[in-house]
Every structure is written in C-alpha cells, then in structure tokens.
Amino acid sequence: MILSTYQPYFAPYPGFFYKAHLSDIFVVLDNVQFPRGTTWITRNRFKNDQGILWMTVPVWKKGRGLQIINEVRICREGRWARKHLASLQQAYDKAPYFRDHLGFMAQLFSSPFEKLIDLNMTVIKYLMQQLGIQIEIRLLSELPIQAKGEQLLIQICQSLGAACYLAQSPARKFLDAERFRAAGLQIQFFHPPSCVYPQLWGNFLPDLSALDLLFNCGPRAREILWAAGSPPQTC
Any idea where the domains of the chain sit in the sequence? Predict the structure, then answer.
C-alpha cells in the first residue's frame, strides 16, 4: 500500500492531485507549523488577460506567534471573497467549462468558513471528485503521532499500515532511504507532471491551480493530467 503526504494548499496545482492519484492513502499534514512567510497554503495562481492572477485568502497572523495549520483562522473583514469570485468570473467567463463549476465557486466564497483548513479541504475534495480520484484521505491530526521530520513520515506509514512512502523527486536530497528501509518501508520518488492544455489569454502558463485545468478542459482534465505523468522510481 502506497502512502503520500502533502500540506493543505489552497486550490492546489495539478501535481498535487497526480501524487494523490499514485497513492492508496493521502495524509494531509494539517497540524504542522504554518509558515511565517508567503505560502501556497493561503494563495495560488490563476490566469487572466493580464497574465498571472494571484488569489490569496487573508488570515490572521499578527500577535498570534507560531501557529499550526489547522489553527489558522480566516480574516472575514473586507470584501475579498466577493472580489475573488468576480475576478474568476471575469477571467474565465469564456472558458468552456467554467459555468459547470460556477455554482461551487459561488458557494465556496459565500460560505462563512472560520478556519483556513476547512476552506482548503473543501476545494481539495471537490477537485479530487472532479478528477475521479477515489482514495482514503486522512488528516495528520487524527493520528496519535508527535514525531517530526523523517520520523514523522515513517510513523505515519507504520500507523496506517503502508508499505511504501511516495515523495516528489526533489525530496531525494532530504530523505534518507536507508532510514525508511530500516523501518521496513520502501520509498518511491516521482516527478510531478507539468501538463499542457488549452488555456485562455495567450501563451500557456504551467502549474496554475488545478481549477484552471478544470475550467478549460472539463471532463478531459483527468485524462490530460494522467497522460502527462510518468511512473515513480523505487529508491
């Protein structure tokens, strides 16, 4: 059984979902430290007639010190949610499949989420459903694990009965395959695909939010993503 992990990004890029596709169990690292600086957990890239459209969910940071991800609260002040929806409508109104998902986006930005984790998981689960990914999703906070670093990943695998841990290729320099083997685990690495597909507004921009792929390609999004990938390599 293959297990992989990821932090709960906001409207993640396609490679996030390709990793889930290769896994049997997908563990969301929701109770690790929330980064102090800019992070994909609060923002992602879309596309409009000006090029890259950055979309950020504002959260409370000042005076809160170090937070873990599932404690981070959304700042409900201002009209950012309404503006985000309007920006998406303006950018993707002519996309072939945008209107198929407009209802979800409108509900997402009108729902009174208090915590960032709840908003992000709602988007992640919706995208997994649309991409036909049917795997077991677990939150790290549900597991009785307190370890850090490589030992955290090893204990997650052991806790859920996984025989193999799946990681992105750049993680080779940070993960010690011998430590995994000593724990009775195999480790595999894969290169996240950068799929190419029809987009609006000029030259193709890679690795935008997977919502861009879905708005432009609809039911073909799954096929395009899987075709762009390659099999993982065992270390």
Answer: 2-234
